Amino acid sequence: MSQYHVRCECGGVSLTIHGQPLRVSVCHCLACRRRTGSVMSVQARFLAADLQLQGETREYTRLADSGNAIRQLFCSRCAGIICYYNSALPTLAIVPAGMLAEALPPPDVSVYECRKAGWLSLCGDMQHLD
Fold this sequence. Notes:
mainly beta
């Protein structure tokens, strides 16, 4: 079984994931762009039951462009987002790819492409969704 490790910037929160990602995606929605400070985000979905969280986190809930509630867990000291949960996917946890110590497989889906930066080109075999 694979293991993935997440740690915030200050080291106050860590996450161990026992299992493979169910999906790796890029997202171009405005909320993800704001969250990352970039033109898109990259994240992986895992079974929530496969996560072991250590350390003190805080939560922030926002509405996604889809209308779903997104509950973000972040470090109470450095504010690094450790993972988040989509109300439409109650058994899954979503982890920002940049927080993982290990490399992920390439993304297999690109969502909200209607908001993709015009100069951005995506390579590889993936599903493209507006």
